[in-house]
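pasting for ref
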Amino acid sequence: MVLGSSLCSAPLVILIVRLHRPKLVHVILAVPDDSGAESHALSEGRSLRTPAKTKLSRFIVKDDSILDVPPSRHLWVIFATIVLAGVAIWALILTVSEDIGLILFIILAIPIWLVGFSLPVLAWWGTSNQLLGLSTRRRDAEAWLMAGMASAFPAFIFNSLIFPELVPFSEESWAFDFSLLAIGAPFCEEIFKALAVALFLPAIKGPKHGFQIGFTVGLGFALIENFQYIGASVFGGPIATSFTILVRGIGSIPGHAIWTAMAGTAIGWIATDKEFKTKMSWRARSMAISAIDMAEGLGIDTDGDGDLSGFDGSRPTLEEAIRQESSDSPEHDNTWSILGSSAEPSDINQDEHPMGVSDFSLTYVKSPKTMKSSGIQTPKRIIPAISLSIAGHSFWNGSSFLSFFAPTEWFGFDDGQGVAFMILWTVFLISSVLLFSRSLIRGINSLESR
């Protein structure tokens, strides 16, 4: 079934990757030049007139548009409306007409399911971007989200096919289900999500950036998981659907995001080691060069240079790459600095860009008062960070299972009392995750913006 599903989904995956290709933008740049002209002919019958003499240059560049998420409050209002719609249909079934309520639910079931599993992810995405204050290129954010979605599939295979064979308990016992939820799922899911974050290590700038990537990867994983859980809850009726959407929307989704963000923060600390990043980039470049050599050895002109001689660029050794990185790293960044609420420009990089545009960046340096540590600081090393994320995930899953099983099976309460206790415990878990998420984001924001 896995092999057949993979073959059937391959064309769709290829289509998604093709659609994800960055768009190209035609840039027309007018630079003041005494030897230029004041009028320039453009394509499609247009023209450009400048008040001073300029030279016109044209470039094709990748579209690096910033991710523009709708205001999070609007998304949360729609989310609340979806939940209340399910509750209203349930009340209609109980008080007015069961047939009318069921017909209405059948008509609205698919829209509720589609909005219920996807909208909370977008809402948390917008909320996290707003709280972190980091601008993100749209294609980068999409890549992080897709990596999280892709990490769900090996996790599901491990949790469904491999770990059950390792559990020593009978499949009919409660210990078997508890082991799958509290041990197998947290272990494999957090490992695969952390691996998805690690794919972006060469591009990660620091712990705060790593937190952002980990948070988004966790949202991508939760998107796929929601697709399954909320889809199954539809068959339980409107109240089961609303309860599942609510719990997963405000509890499980931020939980997945925060647990992965802790691993992402640790990976971000690793990324601050320039020598380590240089080694990683060199190995990735070496693998790409080897792939080009192999393809051209088979008669495929991979690099489009008209011959089959293999990769024609430079092939620096690891030692040469490290030395080059060291020589290229300035003693101090030629950037603007913004200190506290007052913004004062310092040195601006005067190196001229090949396009004729000054190339500079902004670094936001917090004032001493702002840089005071606040919130929760997660481990800087990867193994403790992943262990903490596994522990949090395990506590959520294991205690959720026991919140109904223990009162009804161990302490003799009836099913109604068991459901009441489970709801109270779920409220406690959700509140804890939200408070922990808020404190963790405060701790990340207390770091220097990197």
